[in-house]
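new request in #modeling-help
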Amino acid sequence: MRAMSPESDGVGAQASPPRLSPLGGLTVGLLAGGVMALSMVAVRLGAGAPTTADLLADTLTRLMPPALFDFLLERLRFVAKPLLFAGVLAAQVGLAGGLGVLYSRYAHRWPFRVTQPWLRGLLLTGVVWLVTVGLLTPLLGGGFLGLALPGNPPTYVLAQALVAGALALPLAHLHRLALGRRGLAYDAGRRSVLQWAVSLAVLAGAGGLAFRAILRGGAAIAPSRPSRTEGALPPEVTPNHLFYEVSKNIVNPRVDVATWRLAVGGDVGNPYALTYEELVALPWKEEYVTLTCVSNPVGGDLISTALWRGVPLRLLLERAQLPTSAQRIAFYAADGYDDSVPLEYAMKEQTLVAYHMNGEPLPHDHGFPARIILPGLYGMENVKWLTRIEPVPAAFRGYWQERGWADTAVIKTTSRIHLPEDGASAPLAQTLVGGVAFAGARTVRAVEVSTDGGYTWQPAELRKALSPFTWVLWTTTWLPPSEKAYTLAVRATDGAGEVQTAQVKTSLPDGATGHHRVVVVIRGQAP
Ligand SMILES: Nc1nc2c(c(=O)[nH]1)N[C@H]1C(S)=C(S)[C@@H](COP(=O)(O)O)O[C@H]1N2
Ligand SMILES: [Mo]
C-alpha cells in the first residue's frame, strides 16, 4: 500500500493515490451513512440503548409546537413514531453524504500518514465518537458522555462507539474501494479483489445483523397500539395482549429486574430504595381500573381495562416521611419519562405502585417491573417502568407538560358505540346497539343513545361496573322504522349527574370532548 501524503493530489497515479471526486465522496458517504443507520437500529433494538437518533427525535418533538405534534399524532396515529425515527435516520444518511464530500476533499490532508483503510477508519471512528458524545450529545440534552440519559451511560458511550465505527470504517474503506474500482489507485489483482470481498462480507454481515434485529424487534418498533376489539363489544376486562399501548419511545425499555430499584427519596425524612422482592412483599391491593390516553379522540380505541395489583403509593410515601411542605409527587421512569401529581392524588387509597396486570407480572410494554396506577387521571400520569418517586416543587413540569399537555388532567366523560360499526349496513330488524362509557373516577350513572343524530335520546341498559374506576358496558336494542341511513350517537352521564358535553374539542391539551357518532345503513328485510 502506498503512502498518502499531503502532496499526493492525484497526479502521478503510480506514486500516490488520487483523491476521490465529490460525487464519489457523496456516494461513499451515503453508503456509510446507510450502514450507520442500520447499526443504530441494531443498537436500539439489540441493546435497548438510546442513540443520537433518539435524542434528535426527542429534541424535534420538544421543539415542535404542541398543536403540530398533536395534529401529526392524530393524523399519523400509530405510524407517527416509526416515521419520525425513520425520518431522523434518513436525515442522518444525508448528513453522512455531506461528510463523504468533505472527506473526499480533505482526507488527503489527514495529519496522520495512515494508509491502511482499517486504521484510517479507526482513527476516524475516534473523531466521530468524540464529536458525538462530547459535543452533539450534550447539545441534544443528553449531557456530557450521555451522563444525563436514562439507563446506563457506559452502554450509551459504547453504543455510540459502535455507531461511529459503522460510519467511519466503511467510509475509509469504501473510499479506497471507490478509487480501486475506477482503476485509479490500485493494481488490479488479488489484493483489490480480496479487499472487495472482505468489505462486502463485513457489510453483508452488519446488514444481516441489523436486519435480524429489525425482524426481531418488529413488534417493538411499532409501539402505541390501539386496543383491538373492533366488530364486537369489547371484553369487560381487556386481555393483556389486547390492552392499548402508548409511550413516547420508539422502542420501549426492558428493565433488568435483578438490578432494578425503586427509590423513594428527594427531600424526605427517610429516603430508601426497594428491590422487586421487597416491593412485592409489602401489603398490596387489587383494583379494576380503566386507563385511557389523553390523546384518545372521542370514540377512539386508546382505552382498556385491567385488574391491577400493587402497593398503595400512600404506604411508600408515609414510610419516606414527606416534609409538611410537600405539594406534588413526581414519578421518574427508566425511559427518561417523568410526570407529577398533586399530593392529594398521590395519597388516594386506590393509587398504586402496580406490578401485576390481570394476574400476571406487568408485560414489558406496560411498565415492567412496576408502574403507577392512578384512577381518574389520564394515562400519562400512570407512569410505567417506574424508578424513582420524590416530592417536587409546585412548578414541576413533566414530559408531556413540557409539550403543551395539561397537568393533572382529569378524565372527561366519554362513550363509544362499538356496535353497529361505523358504515355498517344492517337489515330492517331488531338491531343490537352497544359499547362502553367511562367517566374516570366519577362512575357512570346513565348512557343514552340517539338514532336521529342527537335530537332525541333513549336510555340504554348498563352492566354493573367492575369498580368505581372502570368503564361500563352498555347495550340497547333498536328497531329501525324504515330503510335508510341513520346517524347513531351516544352520551353518558357521570355519577354527579353531569351529562357528557356535545361540544366538539380535540384532545390537546386536556382530553377530547363531543359525542361519538356512527352511520348505519338499514337496507332489506331480515331473512
Ligand atoms: N415511563 C413512561 N410511562 C408512561 C408513558 C411513557 O412514555 N413512558 N406514556 C404514558 C401515556 S401517554 C399513557 S396513555 C400510558 C399508557 O399505558 P399503557 O401503554 O399501559 O396502556 O402510559 C403512560 N406512562
Ligand atoms: Mo397517553
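bot summary: The first helix runs from residue 22 to 46.
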